[in-house]
Write a structure and sequence with these properties.
Layout: E1 2-4, H1 16-25, H2 31-42, E2 48-52, H3 60-65, E3 69-74, H4 77-90, E4 95-99, E5 110-116, H5 119-122, H6 125-135, E6 136-145, H7 155-163, H8 173-182, E7 188-195, E8 198-200, H9 203-214, H10 222-230, E9 234-236, E10 239-242, E11 245-254
């Protein structure tokens, strides 16, 4: 079942270009296996899962293949379109997709709620955490970055080169954990490490990727960016690959 009520051009949502890059990189993404190796053994008796900010199905697809009934919600039309394509390709009948923001539609309770790497929801997390805790019958799992000094997309090196300023440390899972603690929720935490590399057809596509993510709309930085990437990207068969390494926290708690 497909339910669409949002538009992809709304602020903060993944556009089609970014969604396609994310989808392209999934074959290099080790997060789903590592995360589900932790989640599935803890949810053997759980049948229904709500994947909040599901993207193009990195977790929703393997959950469905594991026999779970999944509701996958994301505000990005680009992401949901890619997920629906995968559902049809794999002929999965146990995933319902919803193209909406978290508060854009009334959601029914599920045994388990999962929210993986959705910073917009967790930025001011207390409200979302209360709602998720109410909707989850048995457990909630959150995945969030575990290193505030992580060098996302080589930004620590690129910001001084392109903008003459440092890339500042970001908020990580500790803020969410503190918000949970203030709500009387004492979550379990497991730190995971994984690779999530990004392939590109050529250097032109790679430059476009960084310009999109860094909000660069002119060509003034193209030569510096290209020169930097030539020293970073690895040639792999007919593509170029950016090697990324991530550390995240899986926070989870069961319902009494």
């Amino acid at each position: 079942m497909i339910f669409t009520i949002m538009q992809e051009n709304q602020k903060g949502f993944w556009n089609t270009l970014k969604a396609n890059w994310y989808y392209k990189g999934l074959k290099y993404n080790k997060l789903p296996k590592i995360a589900l190796d932790i989640i599935l053994p803890k949810t053997k008796d759980c049948k229904t899962f709500l994947d909040v900010g599901c993207g193009c199905g990195a977790l929703a697809i393997p959950l469905a293949k594991a026999g779970k009934k999944v509701t996958a919600i994301d505000p990005s039309k680009g992401m949901i379109d890619l997920l629906n394509k995968e559902i049809r390709k794999k002929m999965l009948g146990n995933i319902e997709t919803i193209n909406a923001a978290w508060e854009g539609v009334k959601l029914k309770p599920h045994d388990v709620i999962i929210c993986a790497n959705v910073p917009e929801l967790l930025k001011d997390s207390a409200h979302f955490l209360r709602q998720a805790n109410i909707l989850a019958r048995k457990a909630v799992f959150l995945v969030e970055g575990a290193d505030p000094n992580a060098d996302k997309f080589y930004y620590k090196e690129l910001y001084p080169v392109l903008f003459n300023k440092p890339f500042l440390a970001r908020i990580d899972y500790l803020k969410t954990y503190a918000d949970l603690h203030s709500l009387g929720i004492f979550a379990n935490v497991e730190i995971i490490e994984y690779n999530f590399d990004q392939p590109f057809d050529d250097m032109r596509e790679a430059v476009g990727f960084w310009k999109e993510y860094m909000g660069i709309v002119t060509e003034e930085h193209d030569e510096k960016l290209r020169a930097f990437l030539e020293g970073k990207l690895e040639k792999c068969k007919d593509s170029l690959v950016a090697r990324f390494y991530k550390k995240s926290a899986i926070m989870w708690w069961g319902k009494m």
